[in-house]
Amino acid sequence: MTQQTAVEVTADGSVEAEEVQSWREAAAAAVPADRTAAEAGIRLAYRRAGLREPERVVWAASPLEGVRLVRELTGAGRSVRDAVRTAPWALERRRAHEELGPAGWSARWSATGARLWDLTQALVDRIRRGVLEELAGANSDDETEIRLILLDAVLGQHDAPWLAAFRTDRPPLDGLAQVSRSAGWWWPFEKVAVVCERPVALHRDEAGRLDRGDGPALAFPDGFALHAWRGMPVPAKFLAELRALTPQRIRAEENAELRRVMLEYYGYERYLSESGARPVHRDETGTLWRIELVGDEPVVMVEVVNSTPEPDGTRRTYWLRVPPTTREAREGVAWTFGLQPEVYAPLRET
């Protein structure tokens, strides 16, 4: 069984940073599920809800397979999600409000779940969209059914944000927390629980968005995968094409969002050099470049050279993307500092 860590709560509702970090790691875990611990947690969660333990626990390799299994279930009984997940959450939230008061609860949430919520919820939404795209097709009845199944899931590791805000080393959340630290999404029914494996790969950029240029950004053991570039969903075949890009191919791309991805991957400096672009303005602050794109706003960048030499004597060049309305290099550099060009006069360039 996985170890449960108590949340150390101060009078103002704050918690130990180590506990928040442990939940962050649980939410981002891309390793095989601890099936023994997860199944024990599921049975405990049923008991905490006053229910009989499920007769069977069925494992799925991904949320995609999980939805398929739920659609095919027979003799599983009704969903008991409200009893297993919703009621305990409501009880603990009410308890926290009574113990801490509005200000204390707000402080606790800011120090715990709020730090994890945005990143985790974006991932949950993306997985739901990916499952819908795989299973729904053009059938609106199928789409409605699949949406309802997805919304009925207990999110396992992706329930980490709200669990981080509460005590999980005691009833009624100890069972739910154990599953969250051990497995992925799951569906509780009267007689059967369907539980998903965790992903085997998760790649994100510095902002926490799904991001990978040479393969799936999120992948599960059965091959269900999501591809993304800096948070933007892209087709798998599109990523494969990136390694053979040319300026001509970039200009020919009709989808403006995909064209932006191509430019970022290819590199603005390289594109400017190989596409025969010409500067539109130069002054003592740098050089302004402009790339016209059909069906999209132009890309306008200022090329600046660091006045401080590197240890080997060379000077590093930087490319600053600026608004498409920029007409002069000084105007663009000033914009990056939040200044008007007439007041931009650095004492020392760095």
> DSSP helix count?
13
- Compute the gyration radius: what is it? 26 Å
**In whole angstroms, how far apart are the ends?**
55 Å
Strand content: 5-15%
Number of domains: 3
> Biggest β-sheet, characterized?
4 strands, antiparallel
Write the topology of this structure.
Layout: H1 17-28, H2 35-48, E1 56-60, H3 63-72, H4 81-111, H5 113-135, H6 140-151, H7 160-163, H8 174-180, E2 186-188, E3 192-196, E4 201-202, E5 218-219, E6 225-226, E7 228-229, E8 232-233, H9 236-242, H10 247-252, H11 256-266, H12 268-274, E9 279-283, E10 286-291, E11 299-305, E12 317-322, H13 329-336
Parallel strand pairs: 1-3
Antiparallel strand pairs: 2-3, 4-5, 5-6, 7-8, 9-10, 10-11, 11-12
Helix pairs in contact: 1-5, 2-8, 5-6
Task: Describe the protein's architecture and organization.
The structure is a single chain. With about 350 residues, this protein is α+β, with helices and mostly antiparallel strands. The protein contains 13 helices and twelve strands. It has three domains: about 15-200, no CATH class; about 200-235, no CATH class; about 245-345, no CATH class. The longest helix has about 30 residues, at about 80-110. The N and C termini lie far apart (about 55 Å). Helix content is about 45%, strand content about 15%.
Keywords:
350 residues, alpha+beta, 3 domains, four-stranded antiparallel sheet, three-stranded mixed sheet, 13 helices, 12 strands, 43% helix, elongated, disordered N terminus
